[in-house]
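TASK: fixed-backbone design
INPUT:
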């Protein structure tokens, strides 16, 4: 087994642990909505990015089915976004909320850049780290706002 598959396994185990550890039972419904919303975004954008050859994924699961990284687009990234949305510091000031975005986007970008440089998990073709960071920021923003909107509509309906 090569190092890329070991990395995939370790990342999957880490995400599963984090989901069980940091998603409170009373927020499971929010987590599901965040996951599904993010899944729609990442799956469609991931397919476009791979098809238009902005990024290439030399080692991936389901390589005959799709050029995108199925594990990242279908499980890892939506799960990370779920953790982001469920634990979003809604009651903090704007600076702390921005720093929350900054930490998530920067951490994920660093992991991606390291994987791009030292493994065959992905290869940037017409892509850079700042596009990755910006994409993370925009998609986290959209997912967080969607969840806030979705659950504000539910609470209005209940009253």
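OUTPUT:
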């Amino acid at each position: 087994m090569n190092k890329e598959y070991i990395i995939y396994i370790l990342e999957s185990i880490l995400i599963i642990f984090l989901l069980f550890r940091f998603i409170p039972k009373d927020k499971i419904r929010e987590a599901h909505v965040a996951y599904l919303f993010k899944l729609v975004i990442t799956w469609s954008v991931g397919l476009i990015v791979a098809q238009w050859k902005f990024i290439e994924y030399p080692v991936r699961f389901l390589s005959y089915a799709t050029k995108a990284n199925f594990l990242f687009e279908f499980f890892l990234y939506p799960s990370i976004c779920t953790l982001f949305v469920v634990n979003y510091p809604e009651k903090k000031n704007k600076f702390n909320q921005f720093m929350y975005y900054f930490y998530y986007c920067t951490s994920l970008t660093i992991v991606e850049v390291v994987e791009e440089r030292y493994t065959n998990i992905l290869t940037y073709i017409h892509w850079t780290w700042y596009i990755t960071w910006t994409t993370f920021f925009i998609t986290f923003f959209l997912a967080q706002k969607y969840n806030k909107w979705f659950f504000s509509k539910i609470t209005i309906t209940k009253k």
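COMMENT: The chain has a mean pLDDT of 93.
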